[in-house]
Design brief:
Layout lengths: L10 H6 L1 H11 L7 H18 L6 H5 L1 H9 L2 H7 L10 H8 L1 H5 L4 H5 L7 H13 L4 H17 L5 H16 L14 E6 L6 H14 L4 E4 L8 H12 L2 E3 L6 H15 L3 E4 L9 H17 L6 E7 L5 H13 L3 E5 L9 H8 L4 E5 L7 E3 L2 H9 L3 H5 L1
Parallel strand pairs: 1-4, 1-5, 2-3, 2-4, 5-6, 6-7
Antiparallel strand pairs: 7-8
Helix pairs in contact: 7-19, 10-11, 11-12, 11-18, 12-19, 13-14, 15-16
Amino acid sequence: MFGFLKKKPTDADKRDKPSETADDVTETGPDPLPAPASEVEAEPAAAEVAEPDALPATPVGPAAEPAPCDAVAEAPTIPATVTEAPAAAPRRSWSERLKAGLARTRTQLGGGLSGLFGRRKIDEEFLEELETTLLMADCGVDATSHLLDGLRKRWKKDRLETADQLQSTLASQLKAILEPLEEPLDIDTHKPFVIMLAGVNGSGKTTSIGKLAKHFQARGKRVLLAAGDTFRAAAREQLQTWGERNGVAVIAQEGGDAAAVMFDAVSAARARGIDVVLADTAGRLPTQLHLMEEIAKVRRVINKADPTGPHEVLLVLDANIGQNALAQVKAFDAAIGVTGLVLTKLDGTAKGGVVAAIARQCPKPLRFIGVGEGIDDLQPFRAGEFVDALLGSDGARRQA
């Protein structure tokens, strides 16, 4: 203490003690009263005092403090188990997802089919409203007329009175129309089984390929993908992403010819013992004849690589296009010989009735339908299951 009474250090003193002065400048900054001797000695003393305080065993009070701290540190692990609980919740069944996916079709026109069948009285006015609803759901004139004629006959013959009875009859007739489309795809007839997918831009070809790869893998099949869409930007990368997600090899060429990619893919599949080849193609507008000729060339090249292939030519249709799907089926069928259909995006449209129009005007086996973005949201088409989801009842099964 009383350091201010000490003699001010001279220049000679500073030269004799350079280390103490340097330490004082570094640690304390611009302190005008450094007191170097006492502070330098006080630092080791403070360290020695801090070491006994770090011993938690001797004092009773301080020793009890770490225990609550440890308990608090473990507390955040409790909410972690709570947040994981929703992930363990079971996923909805396919029937539930299909019914939810067809909700827009079922409820269009301010209540749609479900709203109409909520009434009790059956008369001509009711049948006219039902006809309008079916047309707005894109069932098509042919299918709608066929259904309404059958309903009128049953109404008069069986003297139907309640809407439930009429709904059951409609479900039965609609199921009869759609049943010819229910033809499961048999991939065990050839090895490798080559599936060529076609469609317009944005129909969902590449995404459908990824989902189909997962579907066939679940059946124990080895799958190979062919990136034949060499026109659209990032199409090859998109397919490779699906391949990585499913653990499936992808045959691709940067800037190569689509037909060459297909030839290499079929040859590689035969050499590797692959069960299923899913071949992507570039999107085509059916009105552009030169592009349709190019996709026909791809089909011919596949046939050269495998004289029995392609074993399935799937046309991917976007359900949002409604009646335009009929024109696409006819155009692609003339160019490449369509053997089956994939109907996607049923969850984003009120035009799910187009399935009935396809069944009446250009019947092709409807192999798969999709109602979501999930990898398992593309499933084989089943007529009874589809009708139940569309009408919101199990009328078809009760009638059967």
